[in-house]
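**User:** I keep going back and forth on a fold encoding question. It is easy to fool oneself when nobody else works the same problem. Could you pick a protein and write out its sequence and tokenised fold? Could you put it straight underneath, so I can go through it closely?

**Assistant:**
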Amino acid sequence: GIGSTQAIRLPIGSSYLLSAEPIYGHKIVIEPSSSFSISEGSPVSASISYEKAFGNIRIESEFPVGEEAKVILKAIDDKDSPEKSWILSANKKFIFWESQNLPVGNYILEYQLPQDYYPLPPSEISIEENSTLTLKPQLLGSRQLQIRTNEDNADFELYSKGESIAKGKGKEFTFSNLFPGEYSLVFHPLINEKKIAKRLCKIHTICK
């Protein structure tokens, strides 16, 4: 049915269950909330009410200082609702952002990332009443660094701003998910090839 009504005639029986179509930004309160029976001469009182409800989202992710990302939120349950968007930036290489209260419902979440990032596909999320949905997207660079050596057992390590970020081994190796910038490549001494190890030193390389 649609709207408010009274005295709906139903056959005597059991396992009746009320349901209702969702309305964007509202929670549904149904009484009785479980299945019920109808007996002759015993009317059943039932109600469906819509109450405004809110939740929010939190985004946490590593992100270089100085870069910006855009987050776009589109309501699925209400196509006429305008999309919401925010610009996020990092504080000390980390994004920790929390939205204001948002109407409960289902949404499509999209990220617009800087040029040198792998794009993230849109995701469907659900915001629930009095709840914070925490998202931890993994933001990866789109650049690669290929290493070729003349030693099958070469052992090396990649540093960025003095911190080790990845290790590699072998005659050919590819470091992936890098961002543009300057890196240090350190070759570690080989057990049986000390002369080779001495000739290979710290190398500064620009990833473009």
In short: The longest strand covers residues 54-62. The CA atoms of residues 58 and 98 lie 4 Å apart.
